[in-house]
Amino acid sequence: MTRLKRMLSRISKKNLLLIAGVFVVGSLIGVGLFTFIYAKGISYLGNDPASCANCHVMEDHYDAWLAGSHTNVATCNDCHAPHDNIVSKYNVKADNGFWHGLKFTTGWYPENIEIRDSNRAVTNEACLYCHSEFTSDMRRTAGRDQVNCTRCRSDVGHGTG
């Protein structure tokens, strides 16, 4: 025991803080990597709709998409990620990934999952983007008169619509 005490007494407080910092940062990186791999995080960087069903709470939504009207023409990202640029797309995916991960890990989500307003706006823009030949007049609306595709067609993509 005295040998350990002598060794510890030779280490300065600065070095002890450095060692503790390296341990904490290394632990966070290790736990983060384990979680990312365990949760199949790399699959979310792609475009495969099956990755959305990695979490059991999304299985019903995935099954509804498989049976829905868009299954052969659109993936999850086509409707739930911005089309304007890659930075916006991955910013939305990162934001959703954080909140999905937090809520699914902690169990703090409602049984009937509802889309957030920010994601509803992205989805509405996706409708207008993909169906631009039919929706060009809708883009001219604004404010209270703004046409929102997802208000009347909320089941499209995940149901019979």
Q: How would you portray this structure in words?
A:
By secondary structure, the chain is mostly helical. The protein is 57% helix and 0% strand.
Structural class: mainly alpha
Structural shape: elongated
Order of helices and strands: HHHHHHHH
Number of distinct helices: 8
β-strand percent reads: under 5%
Distance between the termini: 73 Å
Mean pLDDT: 84
Structural descriptors:
161 residues, mainly alpha, 8 helices, elongated
In short:
With 161 residues, the protein is mainly alpha-helical. The chain is 57% helix and 0% strand.
List the helices and strands and how they pair.
Blueprint: H1 2-10, H2 13-38, H3 59-67, H4 76-80, H5 86-106, H6 117-130, H7 132-135, H8 149-152
